[in-house]
Amino acid sequence: MKNQIYNYGKRTMFEFMIPEPARLHNLATVSSIVATLKEPVDPRKAPSPKAMPDSKSATKDLLTYWAGIYGVKLTDIKEKDVHIESIHDEFHDSGNCSVQQRNFGIPANYVCKSVEVSYSATRSKSSRKLEITGDFTNGIGFFKTQPTETFFLGGFNLSGNWVFKNSGYNIGIVDISLRLNLEIQPALFEAWKQENFDAIIKAYEAAYADFLAKQKELEDAAKEEEESNKEKLGNFYRETESVILKHNCIAYLLQDYLNTLGQEFTTGDQMSNFQVILGEKLEQYADLAKFMEQAFEWSIMDYTFYPYYWGDRKKWQNMYLSQSTDPLFRSFLQSGMARVIVTVKPGFEDAVQFFMTTGRIWNGGEVPVIGDPMYMSIVDEMRQPSGEAQGKFWISRIPTTLTILQAESVGLKVDPDQPLPIFIEEHPENCENPKELESETSFSLDVDAQLSHSTEPSTLPRELTTVFN
Predict the structure, then answer these.
(1) Quick count: other Cβ atoms within 10 Å of Cβ 319?
(2) Residue 328 vs residues 232, 233, 249, 434: alpha-carbon distances, Å
(3) Longest dimension (CA), the chain
(4) Interatomic CA distance for residues 343 and 80, integer angstroms
(5) Distance (Å, rounded) from C-alpha 85 to C-alpha 434?
(6) Over the Cα atoms of the chain, what is R_g?
(7) Residue 45 exposed, middle or buried by CB count within 10 Å (0-12, 13-18, 19+)
(8) Alpha carbons 179 and 159: distance in angstroms, whole number
(9) Least confident range of 38-42, 254-258, 444-448
(10) Residues whose CB falls within 8 Å of the CB of residue 179, separated by 6 or more in sequence, listed in order
């Protein structure tokens, strides 16, 4: 390989200091992995309103939701229930109802928090008023004078066995219905929540471990492929570094980066309805793209990667552990800060200064025409910057996986005296060590080489020799 130092002359240079230069690249690759494998969500760290940090904050609806996500069958429980007690009394003589006491029981594991009372009564003597009273164990009661009514009583905390007392005045027949609204005892419900919360977290941890195992398989496969294609990927890595750094530099230059770069000028999701949105905005955007790509010599951009400790402290470990078989690309991944120097293309100095001062392009937005000193054709844009050679060139040798083909074995006609091509240097005096230059091939063409076979008896089985013969 021929190496030469060139002097490109004086240039206006811009220096950029880019924090975490590999951040954009990592975000893109993470999106790629996520598209392949979906990382399970930790219920304890999920966004609101699905967050379930612990069993105490869990609700039955949340537990049901996460159980469905991770395939957990919740144990049966009835958080709320209803229990109904009925009372029937008849007093046809005096109508004076003495105190009637009845014992009732709350179902196990439940607490009564409220009662809906419905009653219907007849008068013993129509000329007198009617009175109905009722008292519960906890001191809550009622006094009514209407023949029928339905009402609600709250503030209860009944459990186990309890007593209801009722009495009245001028009552013929009375029917009372007590609808007890029950809730499961808090201690039992908390235990149920803890049991099912633990089952869901266990299922999540198993799913996350499986995700990590599959992710490692993909990463190992990618590393193996990367190692096998190390030589091919060298140019790819350099291009990746250049594009990401260039992206950051342009973001610095534009200032209002998020609202300027990445605009949409196409519509449609199929070939049949695809369309480019033409108009003045597209022209302005195209002018900006041409200016940014043409005004700077991106192809000879110089950059240096500083270590991980110049980046965000919270990301030190991830940056430090980033690996790649390519040393320079590994430095890119581990870098906490990058120093980039970009030169302005000769002839664009005034235009760049005008843009940096005003934010406008081409002295007011007018695009130069052919013949303008600042007009650059596509041919000029594709041409590499030319420079003046400095000093003598030197030769370096690198390993190759190229395979030497037998001349004339596959119709390849070559010079018998030079089976492999040799590019003779026209000016060997410009080389630091001319003895390293190749002037003649190290290979020769053996025209007498041919395949031959032994006259010894075959060692193949008789059946095979019969088939071949």
Answers:
(1) 21
(2) 15, 12, 20, 31
(3) 141
(4) 74
(5) 112
(6) 44
(7) exposed
(8) 15
(9) 444-448
(10) 82, 83, 84, 115, 116, 117, 118
Closest CA to 338 of 302, 374, 370: 302
Q: What are the pLDDT digits (tens) for 282-328?
A: 888 888 888 888 889 998 889 999 988 888 888 888 888 887 777 88
> What residue has token string 């070559």?
414
pLDDT digits (tens, 9 = 90+) for 101-148: 888 888 888 888 889 999 988 887 776 788 888 888 777 888 888 889
Is the dihedral angle over the CA atoms 409, 412, 418, 419 positive or is it negative?
Answer: negative
Angle 271-275-276 from CA coordinates, rounded to 5°: 135
Spatial separation of the C-alpha atoms in residues 305 and 326, rounded to whole Å: 14
Q: How many distinct helices (H) and strands (E) make up the chain?
A: 12, 15
Classify 172 as helix, strand or coil: strand
Within 8 A by CB and 6+ apart from 178, the residues are 84, 85, 86, 87, 104, 115, 116, 117, 164
* DSSP code for 318: H
Separation CA 136–CA 178 (nearest Å): 11
End-to-end CA distance of the chain: 52
Domain 80-186 CATH class label? mainly beta
CA distance 202 to 209: 11
Torsions phi, psi of 27, nearest 5?
-60, -40
| Alpha-carbon distances of 436 from 33, 47, 121, 394, 431, rounded to whole Å | 47, 66, 121, 9, 9
pTM score = 0.43
pLDDT on residue 382: 45
37 with 214: CB under 8 angstroms? yes
Give residue limits of the domains in the chain.
2-20+234-382, 43-77+188-213, 80-186, 402-469
Distances from the Cα of 287 to the Cαs of 61, 249, 280, 293, in angstroms? Answer: 56, 18, 11, 10
Q: What angle do CA 330, 333, 337 make, to 5 degrees?
A: 115
Distance (Å, rounded) from C-alpha 407 to C-alpha 412? 6
Cis peptide before 49 (omega within 30 of 0): yes
Query: What are 319's strand-pairing partners?
Result: none
Angstrom CA distances, 362 to 56, 349, 354, 431, stand at: 65, 11, 8, 44
